[in-house]
Design brief:
Elements: H1 8-17, H2 25-37, H3 39-56, E1 58-59, E2 66-67, H4 73-76, E3 84-88, H5 91-99, E4 107-110, H6 129-136, E5 142-145, H7 151-163, E6 170-173, H8 189-197
Parallel strand pairs: 3-4, 3-5, 5-6
Antiparallel strand pairs: 1-2
Helix pairs in contact: 1-2
Bound molecules: zinc ion.
Zinc ion binds at residues 60, 62-63, 65, 71-72, 74-75.
């Protein structure tokens, strides 16, 4: 290990920043320097924002979303309809769908992962019991499985479909295939095959 070049407080800041996804030691060092230089404009408001989040963050007991209230703001939103429930693996997926503003009237259920026997992640590790409860309430008419197009994501989708087969609700999943603006020539074989299989009538 190289010798620290700053005081222990700054070194600690760098070490913590380096743990963020997508940041290595070099970018953490650069980020820390930027923060220190912009102390009033950035460092102090950031420290306060982090403190506020750390003190108030909660996991929604209904859907598994992360928010500062429980139930979360989406579960409390009266303009959303209980009939359409979108199941996602992670809060990041929920945020992506909300950013795209394509599911403004839907509610969500966050699994907190995906089934992965190789990594020792089984059904009990996911937020499935509360999903069954929501389905059993009878208010859900369609379950949209917006899981990732990976083997684990699809295994999870199949598991959920089996799990709720006794309930009379429509289960759908996101289409797999050609991305918007994508060129066929650049697609991998799996994506192209999925697109052909999921072709739609014009
Ligand atoms: Zn919620």
């Amino acid at each position: 290990m190289s010798k620290p070049i700053s005081g222990p407080e700054i070194e600690r800041l760098i070490q913590l920043l380096a743990r963020l996804p997508g940041l290595g030691p070099r970018s953490a060092r650069r980020g820390a320097l930027h923060l220190v230089k912009k102390r009033e404009m950035l460092l102090e408001p950031l420290a306060q924002a982090m403190k506020d989040v750390a003190e108030n963050v909660k996991i929604c007991s209904c859907c598994g979303n992360i928010d500062t209230s429980d139930p979360c703001s989406i579960c409390q939103d009266p303009t959303r309809d209980d009939a359409t429930l979108i199941v996602v693996e992670d809060v990041a997926d929920l945020w992506a769908l909300e950013r795209a503003a394509i599911a403004k009237r839907c509610r969500y259920h966050v699994l907190g992962g995906r089934l992965s026997p190789l990594d020792g992640i089984g059904p009990d590790d996911l937020n499935l019991a509360s999903l069954i409860e929501r389905v059993a309430s009878g208010r859900v008419k369609e379950l949209i499985l917006a899981v990732n197009a990976t083997i684990e994501g699809q295994t999870t989708a199949h598991y959920i479909t089996d799990m709720i087969s006794a309930y009379n609700i429509k289960v759908t999943r996101l289409a797999h295939g050609v991305p918007v603006g994508g060129e066929l020539d650049y697609l991998d074989d799996g994506t192209l095959a999925a697109a052909l299989k999921a072709r739609t009538l014009l």
